[in-house]
Amino acid sequence: MLDSGGYRLNVGIVIINDKNQVFWAKRTKKDAWQFPQGGIKKGEKAEQAMFRELKEETGITRQYVRILGRTDDWLYYDVPSSFIKLENRKVYKGQKQIWFLLKFEGKIENIDFPEENGAEFDSWMWIDYAEPPKLVVDFKKKVYTSALLELAPFIFSSSALDKVKFKLSL
Asked: What CA–CA distances, in Å, run from 45 to 9, 50, 51, 58, 130?
């Protein structure tokens, strides 16, 4: 679903483990890593979309996660035209996202990339909370940094938060 400015309504999902590391996934048949994310369908609330996308992309169901927080406002990024199908270039500009922070409370076996519609991801790992903006495709770096900065207070003490903010600023 696109808004009037050409942005697709979307959710981004940051999943943390007991060590406050984040779930980092590799897109199928590509050398591109990212957080799970996906579109919000017409009539769907952001939280509903998040749980649907979480299951579709990672196989993780809501019973294995707990919501710790979410961003207050939409975070935007423009998608370079080289990434957009030619027929969509006049109407589609990028993504507008609400980000959720989830605590993973399941077991490794509960992470299973579904095959029914072609898996979004084919590999994953836990990485340091501040690493994703350094590793993601350039046009998503600012949004990843903003989301992680806004979500960090939900899990880090004030002294640890200063270190995380510093690492995210590098």
From this structure: 10, 9, 10, 20, 28
